[in-house]
Amino acid sequence: MTHAKKDISEILKLFRPTDQLAVPLATGQPMTLLNALSQRTDWEDLHIFTGLLIFPYPILMAPHVSVTSGYYGPIERTLNDQEGVIDYLPADFSGFEFFAKKKPFRVVATTLSPPDADGYLTFGTHGAAIYNPFIEACRDPHRIAIAEVNTTMPVVYGHPNYGDNKIHISELNYYFESDQTQVEVPEIVANAVEEKIADHVLSLMTEGATLQFGIGAVPNVVAERLAQGKFSDFGIHSELVSDGFLKLWEAGKISNRQKGIFEGQSVFTFAFGSQKLYDFLDERKGRNKRQAVCLPVTVVNDPHQIAKNKNIISINSGFMIDFAGQVSSEAIGLRQYSGVGGQLSFVQGAYAAPEGKSILCIKSTAMVQGKKVSNILPTLPQGSMVSTPRHYVQFVVTEYGIADLYGVSDEKRPEKLIQIAHPDFRAELQERYEEIKRDIYKR
User: Fold this and answer.
1) Is 239 noted as a catalytic residue in this protein?
2) Any residues with CB less than 8 A from the CB of 214 and at least 6 apart, and which?
3) Apex CA 91: angle with CA 167 and CA 124, to 5°?
4) Which of 110, 231, 361, 375 is surrounded by the most beta carbons within 10 Å?
5) Span 23-80, pLDDT tens digits
């Protein structure tokens, strides 16, 4: 298909008053386009599918505009509080791609890096769930694919078997150029509780492990300590890479030699961090040299692919856990807070991997309406969303220790979890456990 370069005013004319638009999460979002959509005032029914919004685009609160998000961040939560028309799609990260392909939106838009000498543009720091749907949209005569070609988007390649995270300019339907600054993640400083949790997580680390962790205070501390510690020869197979990854790389701790799959390369599906991270990933800067590559989410987050890593350690977090081992990680009661994401995919992959370890970090308490409550409970509160089912849970870590639930029966699990509960609640939890043993297990 002949590519067509346009300015933003011409791009806006491609939309119908009643239309559907799919855009990716986070750094893949075409920010200039999304900001410009509010220039049109003739919307009758514009529906936007996205996730982890990185800016409060004015279009989000415009009349006759609705949003479906597959992952809530601060912008989605604020939009919800301000009574914007937004709802949540329960799907894991890979499910975004499946959804976008099975129920294709008429317009698909993303950000691409500028073309190289051969005319190829990369999806930069965000291949994720947009790579395959965008290419399909480019080839569908009944739909429109729009690329925001941003000079600041890093050039990041992938793997030849999965499209190399790039598209040729001749395949584009429409594109326009921008120089929109990349969004950076503010530094997250760990508090005392998170530092203690990180200490326990570090005790589960091993030489040559393949690591998966995301954004957050605990992963940042773990990465920083590993960068300074005795272990090395790590591999990376992670949904997300952020500044913790860069610290490990700069400390010479990453080799990717013992992974079992994608050896010699750090594999991720999107990057979200500082400009320093983006500069490292950018092939134009000369440091990456295809040592860190961006693959579609359906490859990176495939539990069967994850399980091919010989010694993967997956680090994720949760809000609450009950005596059965069910973990709630994405919602507070019925109120959506984040999303399914890739947690279960990596928990499953680590569970099946040779010598794999899945670690779920949970603070022992939370403050609810000014009252301290336990995050380890006999049963989850009514309406709680279960993000990770009990039969996949392995290591559970609080600031008070580690509970290894692998191979532990339902009757014995409370014993291990009570030991890592906050001391203020252990007696109460033990009393409830005794009741359960008497009433359910007839002990």
Assistant:
1) yes
2) 238, 239, 240, 242, 315, 316
3) 25
4) 110
5) 999 999 999 999 999 999 999 999 999 999 999 999 999 999 999 999 999 999 999 8
Q: Which residues of 81-116 are buried (b: 16+ CB within 10 A; e: fewer)?
A: eeebbbebeebbbbbbbbbbeeebbbbbbbbbbbbe
188 to 17, 218, 244, 272: CA distances (angstroms): 41, 9, 11, 13
Residues 6+ apart with CB under 8 A from 308: 260, 261, 353
What is the C-alpha to C-alpha distance for residues 262 and 235, in angstroms, rounded to an integer? Answer: 9
The CATH class for the domain spanning 192-435 reads alpha beta
Instruction: Kindly state the tokens that stand for 389.
Output: 């089912």
Secondary structure percentages of the chain, helix, strand, coil, to 5? 30, 25, 45
Residue ranges per domain, the chain?
A: 4-178, 192-435
Question: Which position among 97, 171, 239, 399 bears the catalytic label?
Answer: 239
Task: Tell me the pTM.
Answer: 0.96
Tell me the CA distances in angstroms from 107 to 111, 146, 238, 420, one per residue in order. Answer: 14, 7, 29, 49
- The amino acid sitting at 39 is Q
* Cα–Cα nearest to 208, from 254, 160, 147, 272: 254
d(Cα 389, Cα 326) in Å, to the nearest integer?
A: 5
Q: Are 150 and 178 in contact (CB under 8 A)?
A: yes
CATH number listed for the domain at residues 4-178 = 3.40.1080.10
User: In this predicted model, what pLDDT tens digit does every residue of 315-337 receive, in sequence order?
Assistant: 999 999 999 999 999 998 888 99
Fold: same for 4-178 and 192-435: yes
Pairing of strands 166-168, 120-122: antiparallel
Q: For the stretch 369-400, what's the b/e string if a residue is b when 16 or more beta carbons lie within 10 angstroms of its beta carbon?
A: eeeeebbbbbebeeebbbbbebebbbbbbbbb
